[in-house]
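Protein fold
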Amino acid sequence: MPRKKTFLFLAVVVFSFVLMTYQSRKGHTLSIDFLSSPLHATQSATQSVIDWAARPFRMIAVRAEENAKLTKRVGELLLEREQYRETAKENSRLRELLSLRERHRDYVTSARVIARGVDNWTQTLLLDKGTADGVAKDMAAVTPKGLAGKISAVSRSYSRLLLPTDVNFSVSVRLQDGRTEGVLSGTGSRICALKYIPFDSKVRTGDIVITSGLDMLFPAGIPVGYVSAVDNQKGEGNFQRIEVRPFQESSEMEEAIIVK
């Protein structure tokens, strides 16, 4: 009997201890959960607000980066287009020069303009061909538009081209329609003077002037320019005062062929 009571007492003690331990642990867990849940909710809400507020700025940054890439690509495409257009223009000019070369049996070489004269008193261009390429002084330079000038000085690798508008330039010419002959001289400006045309010769604005070949320097039949003005009232002596504008503008010239 005493043993049963002792066993029962020990069982009650053990059960009470276990119950107290379980309640202690459960109460601690509940208290931690009670404290941590609001913190988690507050942190989650704060992060959501931050994400919501930062989203437009992130979008702006992404769009700015995309715009920068697109702007760079547009610039590259525009550069490629301009390079293509320049190449196409150069090919067109070279084809015209090739066609011009085939029409001139006295062709010597093709030259490229590499510099322009800086002297205010002379109008010249520097070409990239010289005696090594067969170029000699007094040879003529021609473009698809017409006469470009004559070689005034030459070295082994370069030559200087005297333009028709230079005051030291002159060439024997004739009117293409009337066949009246004269001499074309430079004036130092953008126009030339057609000299020694008699008053009884009919000259009209727009008449074409070509080389006559009588000076033994320039081949005959090369277009030079057109009559831009005729003034019979201010003639010099027995001749009319006629202005001629060259077909080939020196500022637009990039290549030319050299002919004997």
Q: What stands out?
A: DSSP finds one helix and twelve strands in the chain. The mean pLDDT is 80. The first helix runs from residue 2 to 103. Residues 106-260 form a domain with the Thrombin, subunit H fold (CATH 2.40.10.340).
